[in-house]
Amino acid sequence: MRLYTNKKIKSIEVLLGLAMLFSCKTNPVKMEALSKELNEPTVSTTEIEWFYTQNGKASFKLNSPEMFRFDGEDPYLEFPKGIELESFEEKGNKDAYLRADYAIQHLNDKLIEAKGNVLLQNVKEEKLETEYLIWDEAKELIYTEEFVKITKNGQVIMGEGFESDIYFSEYTLKKSRGIINLDHAE
């Protein structure tokens, strides 16, 4: 009789344990709040104008209406309302311009990801338009594998994929689709 009671008690304990385990549920609202708490920016600011210098000379100028800094293993800066970035040559003259609706600057990798209505322009008035572009400061490259449109010397050249130096002075267009002469397009 005692053996039967111990088995019954053990069975009840197991059932109660399982009931407690399966009755626990996650509150999605609380989880979302916790997730936001864990991923809150450490710094937020508006109306940014930064100058990056090399050897005492301006090399880049960054403008943005809003910026958030996120720290952690992979710290980054987020520019949710867009970014404008100008690069300068040694003599201080502007040699390239980048504009995008949204950007993220990965601080460890020294990469800027530009997204949405991306425009890149050089001193020769050549323009590149795309939806996604990466500016790799460490490798001094600008590139994408997305659709691109380059306008230069009265022509529009389209393709998929693009690679350039950071000044957009020497570049390669991958998978070129064709050339449209704007002077003869009428």
Count of alpha and pi helical runs: 2
The share of residues in extended strands comes to over 45%
In the CATH hierarchy, what is the superfamily of the largest domain? Answer: Lipopolysaccharide (LPS) transport protein A like domain
- Separation of the first and last Cα atoms: 101 Å
Helix content: 10-25%
Gyration radius, rounded: 27 Å
Pairing-aware structural class of the strands and helices? alpha+beta
Average pLDDT confidence is 79
Q: Write down the CATH topology of the largest domain.
A: lipopolysaccharide transport protein A fold
Total of domains:
2
**CATH classification class of the largest domain:** Mainly Beta
Topology order in helix (H) and strand (E) letters: HHEEEEEEEEEEEE
